[in-house]
Every structure is written in C-alpha cells, then in structure tokens.
Amino acid sequence: MYDVEKIRADFPILSRQVNGKPLTYLDNGASAQKPQMVIDAITRAYAEEYSNVHRGLHYLSNLATERYETVRGTIARFLNAADENHIVMNSGTTEGINTIAYGWAMPRLQSGDEIILSVMEHHANIVPWHFLRERQGVVLKWVETAADGSLDPQAVLDAIGPKTKLIAITQCSNVLGTIVDVKTICHEARERGVAVLVDGSQGAVHMPVDVQDIGCDFYAITGHKLYGPSSSGAIYIRPERMAEMRPFMGGGDMIKEVARDQVIYNDAPMKFEAGTPGIVQMIGLGVALDYMMDIGMENIAEHEAALKDYTTERLAGLNWVNVQGQSADKAAIFSFTLEGAAHAHDISTILDKKGVAVRAGQHCAGPLMDHLGVAATCRASFGLYNTKEEVDVLVDALELAHELFA
C-alpha cells in the first residue's frame, strides 16, 4: 500500500511553513525536494568519506571511488541499461545533451542534414541543436502538437526525410505534462537509420523507464528532479553510438596517457567524463534513485495518476482557469492561466501567500509558448509526496487569486 504520509515524513522541508501557512510544494517540475536519507548521505560523504576519486591509493580515495562508481550501476538499474558502462555520469540533462551534440552530432552532421524536434522541447534540447544550425548549416525541423497538447508519434516519423540524422524528443513535456510515445518513434526511426535522443528529465521522474525496451540511442536524466542533488545526472548511450563519438571535454580521467605529441584516450564511458566530477552529488543521486526504486516506480506512477485525475476534476470546476494541454496521456503537470489580465507572476505571488509554491514564466519553452499563444503560464507539478489535500489547497488559493483579479 502506498503510504504517502510515511513518504512525506522522509522529507524534512515539507513540515515547514511559508508565509504562516503549511508549505504546499508544487514546483517539482523545476526541482524536487530531498529525502532525509539523501541529505544524510551528502553530509556523511563530506564529513567522513570525502576524497577525490579514481587516482588515489589511500583509504579515503578508495572509499570515495567505490561510493561514486557504485552509482553508475544504480543508474543502469534505474534505466534498465544492459551494462553500467553504457552510462555516462554528468551534471544533468543539459550536459548530457551537449555531450551528444558535440561528441556525436557535430562530427557527423553536415550542412543540410536535419534534426527533428517537437515544439514542446525544453531549451536544453533546443539550444545545442541551434549551435549546429549556426555553425554547420544543420536544418531544424519542427513538429507541432495537436490542439489538446498531444504529440502523434506518426507526425514525428512523417517528418523524417532523406537527410534526417537525429530526432531529439522529450518523453514528457515539462509544460503540458504530455507523455510522448517515444518507443514507437525509436523503433520506427531505427528502421530508417535515424538516431533518437530522448530527454528523460521529466519522464524518468513519473514512470518506469526501460531504455532497452524504448530502443533509444540516447536517454538523458537530471538528478535534482529525481529527489537527488543538483549538478547530478547521467546519459545512457547505446554502445554502437558511443563507439561513434569523440570526446569534447579534455582533462583528467578521460585519458590513459598524455605526451607532448599525442594523447591516448580512456575507454568509454570514462572518455566522456573529464575532470573532477560531482562526487558527493552523484553519491546523493544514487541514494535518491534507490529510494525511488524501493517505493517502486509503478507505485509512484499510480499515485501520481490519481493526483492527476483529481486535479483535472477540481480545475475543471473553475471555468475561469485555462489549462494548457488536455492530452489523455499526461503526467501530473498542469500549466494554466486565469481569465483576465492577471500575469502568471502575479498569480504565483498570490498563491505563495497561501504557502503554495508553483512556477511562473515560460518554463524554458519559448517555442511552445509561441505555439500556444501565451506569454507565460503558472505551472503546478506534482511529485511522489503530494496529496489530494494539497490539490484542494491549490484550488482554494486560485479562488482567492480570481477574486483579487476579477
């Protein structure tokens, strides 16, 4: 049985008050809170176990290396990768996508080659491809969502042409909550010789992920949304694609030998992990992923689906709330505006007075905002510790905002 109150007790910040009200934290899409065991692991790593990894022979270095490298296997298990060496650890999805842009796409794509994107992509899955457009003449092809915010995988596949080399697609929109059928896209694209990068920043939080079943070439995750520390994350890379890549960051750990006239690179995945990593951050991420897997990703998905349904029902009763994206297959992420002149920032400020934390703005999704025809939205995004009672608090706060701005 899913005991949400027991889970909430694991997160110390959820017991605090904001503006004299109990905190209702609905900004999980931006960054999730951390359970006590993650906080304890970080503290212990700094207070009792800290040293640099890989190159030392003393006790603390060996211990830190063991703690750090164990996380690679944890991430592989979380994503059901066939081998932990298919995992490149990094600071998060942004670094992961840039690794593919510089290490795989830049050496391979030429002027006129195409990259397909959906209009829902986060800027982290847009800007690196614009670099290739600006510097190498790569063409970006955009696929739009349907009126309800859904994305037909066939529309993505229909965009493939003879010069298409890559599809870069989110599994779950950080704005609309739309869940994309990336498995169909990946399997069909492979038949046509097109690589697929999946941005799993939101998808891996809300549902079980099996990269072998999905069939993707690249799958990026970011730790701070997965109840782990900021500056932690990883990208799964299919071994055939990893063999095609060149390193784009040089430094320690990614080499075997350096001489005046040559350099011998380390084996993958170390070849793509230059410099001193976020040791403690990654240790914390490993604990966070173990925490999620102990609860069970299927159980988390079921709990959040119930929250999604309840929130949909409650917001439907407010005919002055405009929810962006009504896809039947979506996560518990709700972006909305209020009828009238109230700006999303003003709405967010009113909700904050009631202790409700939401995000306001463009959510790093400029093309989607243009597509929707809105300047900004408020976004309430739910996590594994949120409750139906918090949905009610959100609705009460929205009613107050409506009264003030009517």
Automatic annotation (TrEMBL):
Transmembrane segments: none annotated. Its EC number is 2.8.1.7. InterPro entries: Aminotrans_V_dom, Cys_dSase_SufS, PyrdxlP-dep_Trfase, PyrdxlP-dep_Trfase_major, PyrdxlP-dep_Trfase_small. Its cofactor is pyridoxal 5'-phosphate. Residues 24-394 form the Aminotransferase class V domain. One of its GO terms (biological process) is cysteine metabolic process. It comes from the Bacteria. GO terms for molecular function: cysteine desulfurase activity; pyridoxal phosphate binding. Keywords: Pyridoxal phosphate, Transferase. The keyword DNA repair does not apply. It catalyses: (sulfur carrier)-H + L-cysteine = (sulfur carrier)-SH + L-alanine. It is an enzyme of class 2 (transferase). SUPFAM superfamilies: PLP-dependent transferases. Belongs to the class-V pyridoxal-phosphate-dependent aminotransferase family. Csd subfamily. NCBIfam families: sufS. This is cysteine desulfurase.
